[in-house]
Amino acid sequence: RSKLSRKNAALLYQPQWQDEHRKKLEMIQSLRSAIDRNELFLAYQPKYDLASLAINGVEALARWQSKEFGWVSPAVFIPLAEENGLIDDLGLFVLKQACKDCKHWLEKGYDIPVSVNLSAAQLSSGMLPEHVFGILAASGLSPQYLELEITESMLMQDQQAIDSQIETLNEKGISFAIDDFGTGYSNLHYLSRFKAATLKIDQSFVRQLDESADNYSLKNYSLVKGIVVLAKTLGLTTVAEGVEDKNTLNTLRAINCDSAQGYFLSKPVTLEDFYVALQNQDSE
Ligand code: C2E
Ligand code: MG
Ligand code: MG
Ligand code: MG
Known about the structure:
Blueprint: H1 3-32, E1 40-49, E2 55-66, E3 70-72, H2 74-83, H3 87-107, E4 114-117, H4 128-139, E5 146-151, H5 152-156, H6 159-171, E6 175-181, H7 189-193, E7 198-201, H8 203-206, H9 215-233, E8 237-240, H10 246-254, E9 259-260, H11 271-282
Helix pairs in contact: 3-4, 4-6
Bound molecules: ligand C2E and magnesium ion (3 copies).
């Protein structure tokens, strides 16, 4: 690139950048009122027991159907909510809805716990246990049917304050899963200190797991196998995320991973379609 074209690029780029910036501000405004306008709802992605291939859990994933912006990915709006003080409200909405829905399928005879993702900011006020207990009481859901997904990086911050909230929730029967395991900067110390029940092995390791393939896959295979052994030794369960094909599924079964999630098994679906999956399983 010549100096001249770089300079031109900079001149041309500015208005575009301002557009982007304006769009972002508009999106924040819109997100602020999304809950009240019923634009936010949940998708459910089942989790399968790898021995029986029965559904043994389900993850609630936030969805935003915006009037102005159409479908917005959580990879976009969750960080926006986090950066703009909206994640507490959004997080409470997700918790309330997930607990209410879970209570409903339990009443229909489906004994399936629900998992909800947490953001770091939701642990910063120290109010999370109180909020969760309030929501459980209001929905009538027993705490053992709620699992909270946190990430490794959340365990590295302000340890004392976070540990005590996790312990309070744990004591009441709420379980925890470490999401995207293997991708955060972490010091594995926390695994022995923290009573997480589940490690969710990140999709980046699970993809291309084929033992017989190239060097890259072989390394992923070894990593996942090692994580499963480590987890078993520590008394933790393992869930593989992002299973996209049958080979991967079979490999995971062969190395005794406990559960799996992924497009090959089921994409995130509406609550209605989740019921259909539960019913289909019944009639098999
Ligand atoms: P996550 O919790 O790790 O969720 C897994 C993501 O991977 C989901 O994306 C899911 O749709 C996608 N996925 C599942 N199986 C497959 C597969 O086989 N292949 C591929 N390529 N992708 C798969 P989604 O729904 O877009 O969510 C992205 C992230 O946004 C979540 O990652 C989570 O960190 C965050 N998120 C979603 N809902 C919430 C929420 O209610 N609260 C918070 N704090 N974060 C949320
Ligand atoms: Mg998750
Ligand atoms: Mg994940
Ligand atoms: Mg993630």
